[in-house]
Design goal:
Helix content: 10-25%
Structural class: alpha+beta
Shape: elongated
Number of helices: 2
Oligomer: single chain
Strand content: 35-45%
Distance between the termini: 27 Å
Number of domains: 2
Length: 233
């Protein structure tokens, strides 16, 4: 369901010790967590500009086979979810820093659930050959990324600029740096407009070194900036 990437962050939302009202014969579940991941299907795709939605999944092991339980947010609202394979898709925004509570029924919800987060490659921005200018589609993709960051409270980003294999290595590194800087400046502007003032945005220029084509063939899909998002610490 997800593509694993290198950066990883574990957010333990709370260590509260709260009494739980349960029937004596109720086997307590283990391995409870909410994992924050990217969807496998793009929410936006125009040309090679791609954005993925941030999803939440509830993971739990029920020793006695029970499948009936409820999840609530801090406000006490029930969180809708549906089973997908061996876990549950939570159809609600769960921002990092929020607390999710689990219980066997609506009257017995008290256990805090930790949130597991891996850095999320939320998509990439395409550029024309030899250009570091953002296109209309690229700007739209960055606006959507900024909204996903605001909704999930994943307010830091790591932008990696890349090029195809045309041109020399030194020129390509410089061009990829300009692409990453252009995307970072626009993303920061959009986050500011959404009231996200503590975002941490870093850039890196990789030139042609991450090109999908190692044989010298030019590939237009290598002309991009990839965006990885994660919690601001």
């Amino acid at each position: 369901m997800k593509i694993k990437i290198t950066a990883a962050t574990l957010a333990a939302l709370t260590s509260l010790s709260i009494g739980v009202a349960q029937a004596a014969d109720y086997s307590f579940p283990t391995g409870m967590s909410v994992s924050v991941e990217r969807d496998t299907v793009p929410s936006y795709k125009e040309g090679s500009n791609v954005v993925y939605k941030v999803n939440n999944y509830f993971n739990v092991i029920m020793p006695n086979g029970d499948t009936e339980f409820v999840l609530k947010n801090e406000a006490g609202d029930l969180l809708p979810f549906s089973k997908e394979g061996d876990r549950y898709f939570v159809d609600a925004e769960i921002a990092v820093g929020n607390v999710v509570y689990w219980g066997p029924d609506a009257e017995s919800v008290a256990d805090p659930v930790r949130v597991m987060i891996e850095g999320i490659n939320i998509g990439h921005i395409h550029f024309s050959s030899s250009s570091a200018k953002l296109s209309t589609a690229g700007k739209k993709a960055l606006r959507l990324m900024a909204q996903e960051m605001a909704d999930s409270n994943l307010t830091s980003a790591y932008l990696v600029g890349m090029t195809d294999r045309s041109g020399g290595n030194e020129a390509n590194v410089a061009l990829s740096a300009k692409r990453a800087e252009a995307a970072a400046a626009y993303l920061e502007k959009r986050l500011d407009a959404l009231g996200i003032m503590n975002a941490v945005i870093r850039t890196e220029s990789m030139g042609e070194y991450l090109s999908a084509k190692a044989d010298g063939t030019t590939n237009e899909f290598d002309r991009k900036v990839s965006v990885l998002i994660y919690p601001t610490v």
